[in-house]
Amino acid sequence: MMPDANCLQWRLLLPHDLPAMHDLHLLGMAGMAAQAVKPESRDFLLGLLQGRGTVIGAWHEDALVAYGVLQHDLLAEDDPRMLLGLDAAQPVRKLAGATVAPGWRGLGLQRMLIERRLACAPRDAALFATAAPCNPPSWRNLLACGFAVRALVYRYGGHARYLLARVPQEAGAAGAGLELGGNELPRQQALLAQGWRGTAPGAAAGSLRLVPPTGTGGPVGVPAGRAAP
Ligand SMILES: CC(C)(COP(=O)(O)OP(=O)(O)OC[C@H]1O[C@@H](n2cnc3c(N)ncnc32)[C@H](O)[C@@H]1OP(=O)(O)O)[C@@H](O)C(=O)NCCC(=O)NCCS
User: Fold this and answer.
1) Residue at 78 is within a domain
2) For residue 44, is it within any domain?
3) Closest Cα to atom 21, ligand 1: which residue?
4) Could you tell me the residue range of the domain that residue 45 belongs to?
5) What's the pLDDT band for 229 if we cut at 50, 70, 90?
6) How does residue 216 score in pLDDT terms, banded at 50, 70 and 90?
7) Choice from 48, 140, 207, 209 to test ligand 1 binding pocket (greatest atom count within 8 A of CB)
8) Range with the lowest mean pLDDT among 126-130, 144-148, 176-180?
């Protein structure tokens, strides 16, 4: 049978859905490199289901085929406000993980989960997520839903993570920029630290298109608008 996203049933997950959520998390991670995705403990998932977050699930008959987490109870180390230049009073919510069962990928389910989580979040909240540069499906879907890469950080034992955010009332960045590959992370990190934003996938596999802050030129030695060699 061909999977059909139109026949899915969506509902918020409850604590009794923990076994289905945990099984899908393990299934989704199977075969993935340690640097691409962080394994979550069963206790962490239970904490989310018990109130640290909102978890949206898509079911096909009695099988959970996709879930996405919107977390409001964040650890201090997760707080992105300083990196994003936001006031300490700014409400924030984290898109803290999503999994689509392998047989249901390629149908846009993560994007649907992102949109549903955006609809659940307070209107004035800044939304953020992290995604490994070596996990393009994860960050491409966030970019497609209006997020921008704002920083490159090293987390979870030294693994590279893009910090992506969607901040209300913030103008989106546009214009000519540079395309940098996943093998150019130090350069990406330096540009992001100068206020550049990753706004779209690049043409080359795994690459990111970055644009400079409004009103500035390109990096020293490269005029804005000229593609990286
Ligand atoms: C990330 C995940 C949820 C995405 O599932 P999905 O919604 O079915 O997404 P898709 O497979 O359709 O991929 C989305 C995008 O990535 C691209 N993509 C898919 N596989 C890719 C690959 N191996 N390399 C590069 N790009 C890829 C698709 O072309 C699509 O991009 P586009 O629409 O901009 O062209 C799913 O891959 C998953 O569950 N992975 C394991 C868990 C995980 O990594 N979660 C995210 C971090 S918590």
Assistant:
1) yes
2) yes
3) 137
4) 5-124
5) very low
6) low
7) 140
8) 176-180
Q: Residue 174 to residues 16, 69, 177, 203, 214: CA-CA distances in angstroms?
A: 45, 29, 9, 17, 8
| Closest atom of ligand 1 to CA, residue 36 | 44
- Which of 64, 70, 104, 105 is the pocket-test mutation for ligand 1 (most atoms within 8 Å of CB)? 105
Pocket of ligand 1 (CB under 6 A): 28, 37, 97-100, 105-110, 131, 135-138, 140-141, 144, 201
In the reported structure, the alpha carbon of residue 214 is separated from the centroid of ligand 1 by a whole-number distance in angstroms of 30
Say whether pLDDT at 191 is over 90: yes
Query: How many folded domains does the chain comprise?
Result: 1
Answer whether residue 19 is part of any domain: yes
202/89 Cα distance (integer angstroms) = 35
For residue range 63-75, list pLDDT tens digits in order: 999 999 999 999 9
**Cα–Cα distances in angstroms (integers) from residue 64 to residues 22, 47, 114, 115, 177, in the given order:** 10, 19, 17, 18, 41
Q: How far is the CA of 184 from the centre of ligand 1 (A)?
A: 21
How far apart, in whole angstroms, are the C-alpha atoms of residue 6 and residue 26?
A: 25
CATH number at residue 83: 3.40.630.30
Residue 157 tokens, joined: 């034992």
Which has the minimum average pLDDT: 16-20, 122-126, 155-159, 180-184? 155-159
User: Whose Cα sits closest to atom 37 in ligand 1?
Assistant: 137
In a domain, 215, yes or no: no
Asked if 27 and 145 touch (Cβ cutoff 8 Å), the reply is: no
